[in-house]
Amino acid sequence: MATTHTHIGNYEFKSCFMNAAGVYCYDRSELEKVINSEAGTFVTKTATLNKREGNPLPRYYDTELGSINSMGLPNLGIDYYLEYLIELQETMPERSFFLSLVGMSPEETHILLKKVQESSFKGPIELNLSCPNLPGKPQIAYDFETTEILLSEIFEYFKKPLGAKLPPYFDIVHFDQAAKIFNKFPLFFVNCVNSIGNGLIIKDEYTVIKPKNGFGGIGGEYIKPTALANVHAFYQRLNSSIRIIGTGGVLNGKDAFEHILCGASMVQVGTALQKEGPEIFKRLNEELESIMNEKGYKTIEDFRGKLKMI
Fold first, then answer.
1. Using an 8 Å Cβ cutoff, are 234 and 244 in contact?
2. Which of 62, 151, 172, 200 is most solvent-facing, going by the fewest CB within 10 Å?
3. Distance between CA 248 and CA 223 in Å, rounded?
4. In which element (H, E) is residue 196 found?
5. What is the mean pLDDT of residues 82-93?
6. Average pLDDT of the residues in 105-121
C-alpha cells in the first residue's frame, strides 16, 4: 500500500500535506484544527515582531478558479507563535511544526531570527521573502542583491533549520540567478510559490478587495502551471540538500502528484483549504494514495522529481 509519509532533513511527517502560511493558522484554535486533521504538520501565520491587524477589509475574495487577497500579514506576533510551538514540543514531542516569520525591515528580521535562535524551538523555520501585499514594501526575493546580503547576514549567527518562501519567478535567467544565490547557503528548503502578486479581479465594475486599489495576490487554479514550473526549475538547479515545498493550485490528489513529480517533498494547500476546511486533507491523502497505488508507487520518493520529457 502507498503512503504519503515524507521527510525534510531529520524531520518525519505522516503526510506530505500541510497548510500554507496565511490559511487556518492565525491562532491556536485554527492551528489545532490542522493538527487534528490528516495533515502531516502545520505552518503558523507569518509572524512579525509585534501583532499586526493587516490591511483594511475586504481583503480576501474567492473566485471560481481561485482567490485574490491582500491580507497584509495580520498575525499575533512572534511571541504568541513561539510560545505555542514550544508548548507543542512538550505535549506532542513526536511531531514537528513550522514557524513562519518575516520582519518589516531587515533589522526586524534579524531581531526575530535571533529571538528564535535563542529560544528552545526545535522545528523548521520558513522565512517569508515574498509577501506581495504590503503597501510600499517590495518582495525581497525579487531583489537578488538584497536577498544575498540578507542571507549572508542571517547565516553568520543562525544555526537552526531555515527555509525561504519564494515569489514566483517567470524568466529562466531569474531561476539561474536565484538558485546560484541559494546554493551558497545552508538553506533547509525553499517553498515555491507564494501567490502571484498584483492581480486584479473585478465584479460589477468594482474591485473585489479594498487594499492597494484592488490589487492582490492570486492563488488557486490560476497559478498551478506557474507553481509547477518553479518547483521543477529549482529542483533542477538547487543542491540536493535543499528540499522543495510545492505550493499553488492544489485542489486534488492529481495536483499534489504533479508537484511531487516536479520535485516537491511536501505540498502546501492554501485557497482550497480556505474554501473546504481542514477536512480537505483526508481527501487529498486518499486521492494521492489512490494515484500512487494505480501507478505502483509505494512512497513519494519513488517518483519525486522524475518528471518525464517528451
1. yes
2. 172
3. 6
4. strand 196-200
5. 99
6. 98
Contact 150, 108 (CB under 8 A): no
| Euclidean distance between CA atoms 246 and 98, whole angstroms | 15
Per-residue CA distances from 170 to 7, 127, 166, 175, 231 (Å): 28, 21, 12, 8, 12
Q: In this predicted structure, what is the pLDDT of residue 34?
A: 99
- Set of cell numbers at residue 275: 474554501
Delineate the domains of the chain, giving CATH numbers in brackets. Answer: 6-54+72-199+221-302 (3.20.20.70)
Say if residue 132's pLDDT is above 90: no
pLDDT tens-place string over residues 211-231: 999 999 999 999 999 999 999
Query: d(Cα 291, Cα 173) in Å, to the nearest integer?
Result: 34
Say yes or no to pLDDT of 192 above 90.
Answer: yes
Residues 268 and 34: their CA atoms lie apart, in Å, by 12
Q: Provide the grid cell at 97.
A: 511544526
In this prediction, residue 134 has a pLDDT band, given cuts at 50, 70 and 90, of confident
CA triple 27-165-219, angle to 5 deg:
75
Instruction: Judge whether 281 and 38 are in contact, CB under 8 Å.
Output: yes
The β-bridge relationship of strands 17-19 and 202-203 is: unpaired
From the CA atom positions of the chain, what is the Rg in Å?
18
What is the dihedral angle through the alpha carbons of 291, 294, 298, 304, rounded to the nearest 10 degrees? -50
d(CA 263, CA 247): 12
Catalytic residues: 131
Cis bond before residue 138 (omega within 30° of 0): no
